Amino acid sequence: MARLPFFNGGPFGMDDVMIIVAMIFTIPFTVFSVFIANAGLGKDIWHVDFDDITKVLYIYYWDEWIYFSAIVPTKMSLHFFYLRIFPKKSFRIAIYIVMGITLAYGIVFILVSVFQCSPIKTAWLRWDGTAPGHCNNINLQGWTSAAINIVLDFVTLALPLRELSQMDLWRKKKIHICIMFSVGSFVTIVSILRLQSLLKFA
C-alpha cells in the first residue's frame, strides 16, 4: 500500500517483494491457527476427543513449515530495506552474509519440519503410540529453531545501529526510528519468553 503512487512511498523494491511473500504465508498460518485452536490446541489432552487430537497434530504439522516460510522473508525484507538505504560497502557485505544465514536457516528448518517423521503421516498419528515409524526429537528441533531465530533477530536489529548513529537526521525522524526498533526489540523479547516456556513445558 505504501508504494502506491498517491502515497509517494518510493519505488517498489525487493523488500516489498519479500514482505508480500511473507504475507502470502502468514494468511494461511493465521487461518490454520484458528482451526487448530477450535480443534483443541491449548486444552488439557484429557478433555480433547481422540479424533480432535489427530486433527490438532495434522494442522500443527502444516503450521510448522508455513511458519518458517513466513518469518524468513519477513527478516529478509528488512535486510533488503537496509540495502536500499545504506550504501557503505562493508555494511552491505555484512547484510549479505546475514541474508545467506537467514535463508539457510529457513531452508533447513522447512525441510526438517516437513520430514520430521518417517513416514510423514506419523507426525500426526504417533500420539497414541500405535502408528509405525519414527520421528525426530521435536522438542530439540523447537528449541534450536527458536534460539537461532532470536540470534538472527538481535543481529538484524543491531546491524544498522552504527550506521544510523552516523546519519544526520532530524530529531523527529530519530524518534520514529527509535520507536520502530523498540517494537522490534519487544518482538525479540517475546521470542525469548516463548523459548523459556518451550523449555519449561516440553
TrEMBL record:
The chain crosses the membrane at residues 20-41, 65-86, 93-115, 177-195. Keywords: Membrane, Transmembrane, Transmembrane helix. It is a multi-pass membrane protein. The keyword Transmembrane helix applies. GO terms for cellular component: membrane. It is found in: Membrane. It comes from the Eukaryota. Residues 9-201 form the Rhodopsin domain. Its main location: membrane. Belongs to the SAT4 family. This is CFEM domain-containing protein.
